Amino acid sequence: MKAGFVGLGAMGAHMARHLARAGMLVGVWNRTAGKAAALAAELGCRAFPTLAELAAACDTVVICVSADEDVRAVVAGLEPGLARASTVIDCSTVGAGTAREMHARLAARGVGFLDCPVSGGVEGARAGTLAIMVGGDAEVFERARPVLEQLGKTITHFGPSGSGQAAKATNQIMCAGIIQVVGEAMAFARAEGLPLDRLIDTLGKGAGSSWYFVNRAPFMARNAFPAGFRVRLHAKDLRICRDMAAEHGAQLPVVESVLRQYDELIDRGFGDEDISAIYRLASTLFDGGRHEG
């Protein structure tokens, strides 16, 4: 297969590397051309000057960008170069409605579109062990499977277009609650004077453990939050979840609570830190409400 990759951020660059190692990667494109040129030089592929030229050289294009409007712009740029029976795989996290819109738009040209948001963080992208949630036509999914298998270890087709994004929204709601409660638990443990490294090692093997506890409680213990999954990006995802829930006439209390905390972190200049920075706010519960950092 001849694959192209669009969007070379913290996740996308690692995902593109896996396609290159599999001998599938023809070229890359990024809004910042210098980033595309650097990765292309590393991987021995081509940095295409336009999206249409990238599309014309590939039978499959993978997208990993930040927001709904980015996906729409990328698809519009790819469209002139896409051949019939080619496939666009969108690994971005966007609204299910956007996924259905792009599916219908490309289906009219005979091009397959799959919404394939991923979970597993930068660590999973680097290791090629992402969980991939897929929505779209079953035959297009089977056609795309060889590419998806280079990017993740758990690949599930959930149904028609938009289903992958609905599954990812479910995941993001879970992440919101988990990171919030891990922040509160770690703030409590510090206030109790517990040895945090030993606590993380022990509780990481207990019933209350989670991926976020094992991988992000150490950030809280060090009070340092290097960008993994950025606060502002999870806030964007949670607003998508809120909008999707509103279509059912429902509100999500945990989502609303975490969004308020994220808004405060963003206002204080911490929007580009990892979401474990929610600990900054949890820690104030034990110091009379005095803000830290």
* DSSP E strands, number: 9
How large is the radius of gyration? 20 Å
Overall average pLDDT: 96
**Low-confidence parts, pLDDT < 50 over ≥5 residues?**
none
CATH architecture identity of the largest domain: 3-Layer(aba) Sandwich
Straight-line distance between termini = 49 Å
| Sheet having the most strands | 6 strands, parallel
How would you concisely characterize the structure shown here?
This protein is α/β, with parallel strands linked by helices and about 290 residues long.
Structure characterization notes:
This protein is α/β, with parallel strands linked by helices. The chain folds into 2 domains: 3-160, Rossmann fold (3-Layer(aba) Sandwich); 166-286, N-(1-d-carboxylethyl)-l-norvaline Dehydrogenase, domain 2. It is 53% helix and 13% strand. It has helices at residues 12-21, 33-43, 51-56, 68-78, 96-107, 121-127, 138-151, 163-191, 196-203, 211-222, 231-246, 253-267, 279-282, and strands at 3-6, 25-29, 46-47, 60-63, 87-90, 112-115, 118-119, 130-135, 152-159. A 6-stranded parallel β-sheet has the order 3-2-1-4-5-6, with helices on both faces. A 3-stranded mixed β-sheet has the order 7-8-9. Helix 2 (33-43) links the parallel strand 2 (25-29) and strand 3. The protein is globular and about 60 Å long. The protein starts with a strand and ends in an 11-residue tail after the last helix.
